[in-house]
Design a protein that fits this description.
InterPro entries: Diff-Dev_Assoc_Protein (IPR052326). Keywords: Signal. The chain has five helices and 17 strands. It has 371 residues and is α+β, with helices and mostly antiparallel strands. Among the domains are: 68 residues, no CATH class; 136 residues, no CATH class. The protein has a three-stranded antiparallel β-sheet with strand order 2-5-4. α3 packs antiparallel against α4. The radius of gyration is 23 Å and the shape is flat. The protein binds 2-acetamido-2-deoxy-beta-D-glucopyranose (NAG) (5 copies). The site of one 2-acetamido-2-deoxy-beta-D-glucopyranose has 7 residues, from loops.
Length: 371
């Protein structure tokens, strides 16, 4: 709960203090003091820790301490002992510990039902549709195996569509690596086309300015290797275009001209620079195409929930592509910052020894308190 409150405070403070630019955070490490975000929103704890504020601050806005997250298998209480991002504090019986949960989709391997997404059952080591559904799927991707999606009219799993198939006016979805895209700017007919494929001037429907590869394949129609984005043309139609020139000057004062840009600030500075959300071009395009191929080869149902977990099909098989993708935006990190942000799934949050001695003592203390 305290973690949740401090997160809310942190987000609120960042929102208020940095309508202009919020990038470039100074980094403090485990055991070091971290300022209250209302006092200094520009300082954060390193990735493996969070800022813990004691229960009864002697003074308002007192500083906290950067406190290490509990790793996989370690004791947790959702308070001081909070699990690292991506792990759940879980107790079946006995003391709770941090575990990877809810990452396996229908047909994937599981050790218990807690590993299956959407409350599905684990039978004979595979996730299967939960018995209570009596054979009916209930959400588009969740209750169907790879190669299928749920027809929300009949509640039956139906095969996904292949490239070139019409995807307007149907309950069927385009398959992995494909996207439902208009055939022209009239936007009446849609077909399944390869993600990241449409050329200059082609019609598109989703003006996504920012995308990530965190357990997902971005839904982008336009060819990233040609550095195209789906933008409105002079007639107000969405087509694949090269983005306009980047706004120059100090954006901390005036902001950026285009809504496909954001204002980034280096650590400890209000000298904002406008940048695209992603680095477009051949290398980024290659990362996306490699990820699609990997998802298809390994039959990952990545549109279901749980795909951003370290234990998901996509991370287990294609993690290196997502973690080393070349689509990241301009870096504003320097020696004072914690480095560039990485997706949670890119950190294996395994504890080296199953239970750390200090935590083991904490458990004994807790058990002693309880009984
Ligand atoms: C941070 O750690 C110091 C030294 O261990 C301690 O005196 C202080 O009370 C801690 N502050 C919080 C907010 O937990
Ligand atoms: C979805 O289910 C409805 C109702 O049974 C059916 O009429 C329709 O053809 C199905 N759509 C597909 C693409 O299978
Ligand atoms: C757009 O496609 C629709 C359906 O395929 C077609 O009827 C229409 O004439 C096309 N419009 C243009 C401008 O090509
Ligand atoms: C940029 O704008 C911010 C906010 O108005 C200001 O604090 C900063 O000094 C400016 N930087 C430069 C180099 O003018
Ligand atoms: C984490 O632990 C699990 C089970 O103990 C093991 O299968 C997996 O390989 C470990 N991952 C890493 C990166 O050490």
């Amino acid at each position: 709960m305290k973690l949740f409150i401090s997160l809310v405070i942190l987000l609120a403070a960042i929102g208020a203090a940095s309508a202009d630019c919020s990038y470039g955070q100074r980094c403090v490490h485990v055991g070091e003091s971290c300022p209250h975000p209302a006092v200094d929103p520009w300082t954060t704890c390193d990735r493996d820790s969070w800022c813990f504020f004691s229960n009864n601050p002697a003074t308002p806005y007192e500083s906290g301490n950067c406190t290490a997250y509990a790793k996989r298998g370690e004791y947790c209480d959702n308070d001081y002992w909070s699990c690292a991002p991506g792990l759940e504090c879980f107790s079946n019986e006995g003391p709770a510990s941090c575990q990877y949960l809810y990452f396996a989709t229908i047909g994937e391997d599981c050790a218990s039902a807690f590993e299956c997404t959407n409350g599905n059952d684990c039978i004979d080591g595979k996730c299967q549709l939960r018995a209570s559904q009596e054979g009916s799927c209930s959400q588009t991707w969740e209750d169907c195996p790879y190669g299928f999606s749920c027809n929300r009219t009949s509640d039956l799993c139906i095969p996904t569509l292949t490239v070139g198939a019409s995807c307007s006016g149907t309950r069927a979805q385009c398959g992995v690596g494909l996207i439902c895209s208009p055939t022209n700017t009239t936007m009446t007919d849609y077909t399944c086309v390869a993600i990241n494929s449409k050329g200059l001037g082609a019609a598109c429907s989703q003006n996504t300015f920012s995308f990530n590869l965190d357990g997902r394949i971005p839904d982008i129609e336009c060819d990233v290797s040609q550095s195209l984005l789906c933008l409105e043309n002079n007639n107000g139609e969405l087509t694949c275009q090269a983005p306009p020139a980047i706004t120059t000057g100090n954006c901390s004062t005036d902001g950026c001209k285009e809504n496909n840009e954001y204002c980034g600030c280096p650590v400890d500075s209000y000298n904002g620079v406008c940048a695209l959300y992603n680095t477009l071009g051949a290398a980024c395009s290659e990362s996306i195409n490699e990820l699609i191929k990997c998802a298809v080869d390994n039959e990952c149902q990545y549109k279901a929930s749980g795909s951003s977990s370290y234990k998901s099909c996509l991370y287990q098989n294609c993690g290196s592509i997502m973690c080393d993708n070349k689509c990241g935006g301009q870096s504003f990190s320097d020696a004072k910052s914690c480095g560039d942000y990485k997706y949670d799934g890119c950190y294996a949050q395994n504890s080296s020894s199953f239970v750390r001695p200090t935590i083991f003592l904490a458990i004994i203390a807790l058990v002693a308190l309880l009984f």
